[in-house]
Specification:
Layout lengths: L4 E5 L7 H9 L8 E6 L1 H10 L6 E4 L10 E5 L16 H18 L3 E5 L4 H5 L6 H8 L6 E5 L4 E4 L9 H4 L2 H17 L7 E4 L13 H15 L4 E5 L1 H4 L2 H4 L4 E4 L2 H12 L4 E5 L4 E5 L16 H12 L2
Parallel strand pairs: 1-2, 1-5, 2-4, 3-4, 5-12, 7-10, 8-9, 8-10
Antiparallel strand pairs: 6-11, 11-12
Helix pairs in contact: 7-8
Length: 320
């Protein structure tokens, strides 16, 4: 694996992502890897100028023509009247084409590229067909058993179930999924990050106890941990979620595996704010989603926090 290119999908055209790009690229001028944005060059240029970011955009049609230390753009057609507008299904084809072009590139250069995607609206673009961009990319790349990892170098978290209603969580927790997630994360740390990994696994029920006859901790989680230990994985648990995220535990473990989305995402976002990134493991390439939603409330106001995108770029620059 030798990363040469960072492919950035513009995503929702009427989001704060252009602003975030402007804030980052106006400060950082030199990069180890070549930057290529997939999006509409005229829209991005006008949005940046409206926000007083005057950046040089180099339009290309082939990533092999990308220049070092400039912002290269592969143009995707998009008709617009206003520089900033309301999010609507009218943007769906543009977003789809941005992803399609990026995936076409990744198919040929997957060992040389990392994909960053800008935000999309789950309501208008993904609708009810996909739980999130993670699942969207998994289908488009014909991948299976993709894994969500919210990463900070001090500690990362993985939810066994992702964007599903809480009432469905218990039925979706299986030994197979717990083992799959942890083995893939362990491989990622060992082979990509070149780090040893220690895992803590949280229980599902309050205090890892339940009055119900079916106890997920005893029937699913503990047997999974036992099997993983046989595979030489450094793992402990299950721990009660309510007291786990104390400093002494954060300092002890590298990855916390929770049973549902907010069980682990709420504490890590509270601890690190925007200094964390969403990694998708299990695709043919590494995909990163900075922790920025479309943020239509701040659209055009130049008030968005670019910290997560900055953290993503720092993370990539460290990769070989």
């Amino acid at each position: 694996m030798h990363i040469k290119f960072i492919i950035i999908v513009h995503g929702e055209p009427f989001s704060t992502f252009s602003e975030i790009l402007g804030k980052y690229f106006s400060k950082i001028k030199r990069f180890k890897k070549k930057i290529i944005i997939i999006g509409n060059i005229e829209l991005i240029r006008k949005q940046l100028r409206k926000l007083n970011y005057f950046l040089l955009l180099n339009e290309i049609t082939d990533i092999n023509n990308a220049k070092q230390n400039v912002i290269n753009i592969i143009n995707i057609n998009f008709s617009f009247k206003n520089v900033f507008s309301k999010i609507s299904p009218k943007s769906n084809l543009y977003i789809k084409n941005c992803f399609a072009k990026s995936l076409e590139i990744m198919r040929f250069y997957k060992k040389e590229c990392i994909l960053i995607n800008g935000p999309v609206s789950k309501k208008t673009f993904l609708k009810k067909k996909y739980l999130g961009v993670t699942e969207y990319l998994s289908e488009k790349t014909k991948s299976k058993n993709e894994v969500m990892l919210i990463y900070n170098e001090k500690i990362a978290v993985n939810p066994i179930t992702t964007h599903i209603p809480l009432k469905y969580v218990a039925k979706q927790i299986t030994q197979k999924k717990i083992i799959n997630n942890i083995l893939k994360i362990n491989y990622f740390y060992k082979n990509i990050l070149k780090r040893k990994t220690s895992f803590a696994v949280l229980g599902l029920n309050p205090h890892c106890e339940t009055i119900d006859k079916h106890n997920e901790e005893n029937k699913i989680i503990k047997p999974s941990i036992k099997l993983l230990r046989k595979k030489k994985i450094n793992i402990e648990g299950p721990f009660p979620a309510d007291t786990f995220f104390l400093k002494k535990n954060i300092d002890k473990y590298d990855v916390v595996v929770g049973m549902y989305h907010d069980q682990v995402l709420t504490p890590i976002k509270t601890i690190f704010n925007f200094n964390a990134i969403n990694l998708t493991i299990g695709l043919p390439f590494i995909r990163i989603s900075p922790d920025h939603g479309p943020n239509s409330i701040m659209l055009g106001k130049n008030k968005s926090d670019p910290s997560s995108f900055m953290y993503a770029m720092k993370f990539i620059e460290k990769l070989k």
